[in-house]
Backbone:
């Protein structure tokens, strides 16, 4: 009943939502959250395809993706904290010093 | 409609709706919570895909560690509202274009992925047992992908040090 | 050995250029003169050798210059009778002028003195290469070289603007002629396949005479264009009067005796070729005669002593071209040879006058120098008599030969004009003598500025006070005011100089030798009608013939003369009494014309100067026209120089250089700036915009891939 395509479609939708979030939100933390959504969407794809192909490699990849996502989230949040201390705001539009 | 299908649609719906909520919510605290919900739904999906190990690690690492970290930061920074400190670079026009682009992306992805043709999962019990076996996963990680594993651990170490350095107060 | 002849003066040039400025004047001057005298000695030896050879020629190939497939040009030198005359004149009179210069230029500093002599030696070297060349390219090397040296020497006092301008003018006008020369050379190579004189002559001899505009006619016309530039004929004579800005010995050597004769020599060298192009010869004769007449009329009213002599040179060159044009090549060369003597003497004499008067060149400020400068006066008088064509001095024989040939070949009109010009020659030359040496010392010229070194001649000199000769409102010749910065402080007006010293020994020596030459030089060409045997003409005959076979290296050249264009030209001089009667009549006419000219000059400028002034006033338009040289310079200026200048300034400089080229370069810069100032707006500094653009890119690329 449920084919690989379903999962892939789901993954695509989640990815698009994540991208929209990165683009549209004006809060740094929410942007980071959206990035996590994107990563998860990719994880879904990996696991589904791994199941389809009958290997365990899909899950292993998700394992590593999660690890890296954790590392990235840690550093990203550290940056957010540092930026917040500077400007007292979490809006990405406040940091435009590299403007032309 | 077997259990698989029902489960899939339920979990998928929860995941999508929660993600939409994450993106749409004003309050970052709520966003974090909704994301946890979404992760939970995804874990359920993993179970349906005969990947219990992934489901568990999803809950433990993502929902348990990463989201908690986010929660800490949100509460630390007291960023419960979205203060418009600076005028947005992208006006409402930009928002509309962004939304449009996102939908386009979704459409494209869906369309592209659906061109693959209908592909059914195999139901061979031996394969399933192979996939869902934790020992198999462990074996693969520590032998075939041992190098990646070690590198990842170094990566985590580096990010930890980096996070401490960046977020440190004072010179 | 032939190479030594130009090499000795060239060595002199090298030494004087490199270390001359540190040497004392005696050394540099002596070195230069020594080089010339040595060259003269070698020239004599070479001439004797050549004369003894069977073909009357000696050739030496110095090195293989241009070996390029079919185009083989060796650097070859050749001495034959014509070249003999030329090298003896160049080295002989050149040596005398070098000796003269040691005294004349004595007021210069050591380094300037050395520079002068180095240029003079270089000139001699190039001139010798010109006349010794056995093929066109070698001659052209000399041709260009003397043009260069002429520029260097005319503009010797380059700090004076008029001198620098005159040098430029000479060079540029010469260039126009050289352009024609080069084209002629190329056409000759295309036509005959060779540029060696002997080969061209022998091949041309084999072709029929061209009575229409064929290759030979066009080539010779182009060569003649070069000759008009170098030898100052219409239309390219305009540089010669201005060339008087140079030191007087330079005028004597270059613009009287040698360089300006290069064109005549060139035609003589290619006699066979020109003989086959009667159209060209007709043009040559016509232009020669017209130039002679025109220059004679201008010379009649000039006030600067050197200008009169310059126009006289142009006029006498016209005679030479008239001779070449009617086919009397030997007569033209004869006149070249005698003219070298008396014209050099005239210039050197005028130099002595100028030297004595400390820079005065305007004849209206002269007079009464006969008693004060005896040597100068007597030598000058001898030269004047010679140039007027009074027997038995040199000028008579050569000029008479030309006129006789013109008449007997049927060019009666040219003959008549020639006689008229002879009258004018005598008139203006004796005018010069009377104004300069007779009467009392005058100061009639308009007031000159106190410091002639920084003068602006035309602006100030004209219009100051009345000129006794009544030159209406027109400006006097640009050097009506004394112009030569002679180094010594000049007190030009007011009290006359205390003691006018005659020519110092070096100068006097040259003057006297040249005077002797002017008297006796003509005797090599006494026509048979007067009892002589016209030795010069017979001597030169081999040069004007074509030889059929090849020439050996530095040895007797091999043999048979194919055509002798000069044989018919040696017009039947003494055969039969009617021919002799005609000849005597013609002689009588030319002498009579000369005598008439002297009488006219005597009346107007010795007896009754006021009559001259009255006549000038009454014929004022004519006078002004002549005084301003028929406004030819102004015409050239308006028709050629200014359009080119304006075209260059507006079109080429502003339009192309500034507009297009600079515009392109600047435009590239402007374009880059415009583009980058447009592109930099992508740098908004907002990460959301960056994310947005990334996003858009992803969408587009994904879409594109999905479409395919």
Residues:
């Amino acid at each position: 009943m449920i084919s690989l395509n379903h999962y892939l479609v789901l993954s695509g939708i989640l990815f698009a939502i994540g991208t929209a979030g990165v683009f549209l939100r004006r809060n740094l933390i929410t942007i980071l959250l959206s990035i996590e959504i994107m990563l998860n969407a990719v994880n879904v794809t990996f696991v589904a395809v791994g199941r389809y192909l009958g290997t365990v490699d899909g899950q292993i990849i998700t394992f590593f993706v999660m690890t890296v996502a954790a590392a990235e989230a840690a550093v990203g949040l550290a940056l957010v904290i540092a930026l917040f201390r500077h400007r007292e705001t979490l809006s990405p539009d406040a940091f435009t010093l590299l403007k032309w | 409609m077997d259990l698989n299908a029902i489960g899939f649609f339920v979990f998928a719906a929860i995941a999508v709706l929660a993600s939409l909520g994450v993106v749409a919510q004003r309050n970052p605290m709520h966003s974090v919570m909704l994301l946890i919900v979404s992760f939970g739904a995804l874990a359920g999906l993993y179970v349906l895909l005969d990947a219990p190990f992934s489901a568990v690690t999803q809950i433990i690492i993502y929902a348990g560690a990463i989201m908690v970290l986010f929660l800490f930061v949100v509460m630390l920074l007291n960023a419960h509202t979205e203060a418009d400190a600076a005028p947005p670079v992208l006006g409402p026009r930009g928002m509309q274009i962004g939304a449009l682009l996102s939908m386009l992306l979704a459409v494209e992805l869906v369309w592209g992925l659906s061109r693959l043709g209908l592909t059914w999962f195999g139901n061979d019990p031996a394969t399933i047992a192979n996939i869902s076996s934790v020992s198999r996963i462990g074996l693969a990680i520590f032998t075939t992908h041992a190098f990646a594993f070690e590198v990842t651990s170094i990566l985590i170490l580096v990010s930890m040090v980096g996070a401490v350095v960046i977020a440190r107060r004072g010179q | 050995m032939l190479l030594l002849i130009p090499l000795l003066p060239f060595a002199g040039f090298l030494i004087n250029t490199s270390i001359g400025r540190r040497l004392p004047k005696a050394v540099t001057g002596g070195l230069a003169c020594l080089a010339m005298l040595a060259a003269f000695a070698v020239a004599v030896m070479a001439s004797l050798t050549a004369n003894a050879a069977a073909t009357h020629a000696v050739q030496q190939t110095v090195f293989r210059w241009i070996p390029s497939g079919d185009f083989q040009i060796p650097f070859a030198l050749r001495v034959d009778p014509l070249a003999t005359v030329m090298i003896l004149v160049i080295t002989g009179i050149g040596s005398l002028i070098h000796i003269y210069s040691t005294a004349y230029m004595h007021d210069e500093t050591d380094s300037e003195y050395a520079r002068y002599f180095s240029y003079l030696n270089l000139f001699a070297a190039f001139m010798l290469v010109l006349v010794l060349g056995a093929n066109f390219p070698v001659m052209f090397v000399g041709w260009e070289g003397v043009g260069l040296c002429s520029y260097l020497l005319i503009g010797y006092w380059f700090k004076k603007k008029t001198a620098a301008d005159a040098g430029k003018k000479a060079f540029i006008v010469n260039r126009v002629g050289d352009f024609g020369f080069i084209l002629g050379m190329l056409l000759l190579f295309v036509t005959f396949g060779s540029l060696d004189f002997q080969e061209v002559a022998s091949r041309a001899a084999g072709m029929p005479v061209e009575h229409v505009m064929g290759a030979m006619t066009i080539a010779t016309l182009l060569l003649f264009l070069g000759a008009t530039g170098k030898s100052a004929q219409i239309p390219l004579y305009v540089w010669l009067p201005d060339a008087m800005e140079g030191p007087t010995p330079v005028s004597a050597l270059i613009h009287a005796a040698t360089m300006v004769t290069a064109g005549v020599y060139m035609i003589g060298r290619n006699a066979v070729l020109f003989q086959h192009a009667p159209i060209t010869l007709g043009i040559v004769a016509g232009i020669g005669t017209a130039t002679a007449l025109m220059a004679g009329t201008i010379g009649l009213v000039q006030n600067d002593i050197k200008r009169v002599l310059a126009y006289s040179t142009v006029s006498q060159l016209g005679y030479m071209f008239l001779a070449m044009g009617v086919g009397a090549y030997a007569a033209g060369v004869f006149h070249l040879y005698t003219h070298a003597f008396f014209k050099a003497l005239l210039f050197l004499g005028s130099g002595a006058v100028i030297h004595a008067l400390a820079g005065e060149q305007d004849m209206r400020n002269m007079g009464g120098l006969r008693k004060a400068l005896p040597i100068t006066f007597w030598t000058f008088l001898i030269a004047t008599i010679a140039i007027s064509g009074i027997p038995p001095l040199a000028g008579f024989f050569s000029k008479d030969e030309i006129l006789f040939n013109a008449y007997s070949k049927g060019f009666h009109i040219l003959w008549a004009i020639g006689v008229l010009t002879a009258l004018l020659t005598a008139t203006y030359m004796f005018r010069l003598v009377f104004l300069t040496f007779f009467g009392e010392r005058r100061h009639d010229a308009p007031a000159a500025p106190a410091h002639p070194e920084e003068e602006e001649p035309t602006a100030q000199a004209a219009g100051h006070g009345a000129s006794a000769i009544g030159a209406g409102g027109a400006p006097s010749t640009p050097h009506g005011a004394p112009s030569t910065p002679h180094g010594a402080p000049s007190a030009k007006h007011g009290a006359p100089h205390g003691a006018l010293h005659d020519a110092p020994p070096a100068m006097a020596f040259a003057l006297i030798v040249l005077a002797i030459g002017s008297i006796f030089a003509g005797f090599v060409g006494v026509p048979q009608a007067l009892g002589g045997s016209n030795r010069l003409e017979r001597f030169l005959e081999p040069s004007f013939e074509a030889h059929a076979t090849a020439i050996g290296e530095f040895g007797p050249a091999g043999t048979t003369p194919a055509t002798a264009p000069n044989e018919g030209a040696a017009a039947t001089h003494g055969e039969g009494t009617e021919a002799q009667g005609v000849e005597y009549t013609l002689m009588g006419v030319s002498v009579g014309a000369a005598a008439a000219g002297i009488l006219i000059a005597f009346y107007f400028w010795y007896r009754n100067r006021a009559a001259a002034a009255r006549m000038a006033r009454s014929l004022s338009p004519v006078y002004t026209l002549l005084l301003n040289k028929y406004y030819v310079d102004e015409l050239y200026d308006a028709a050629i120089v200014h359009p080119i200048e304006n075209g260059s300034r507006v079109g080429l400089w502003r339009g192309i250089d500034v507009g297009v080229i600079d515009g392109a370069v600047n435009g590239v810069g402007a374009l880059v700036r415009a583009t980058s100032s447009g592109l930099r707006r992508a740098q908004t500094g907002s990460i959301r915009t960056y994310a947005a653009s990334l996003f858009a890119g992803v969408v587009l690329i994904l879409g594109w891939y999905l479409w395919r």
In short: Chain B is about 80% helix and 0% strand. The mean pLDDT of chain B is 83. The longest helix of chain B spans residues 52-77. The radius of gyration of chain B is 21 Å.
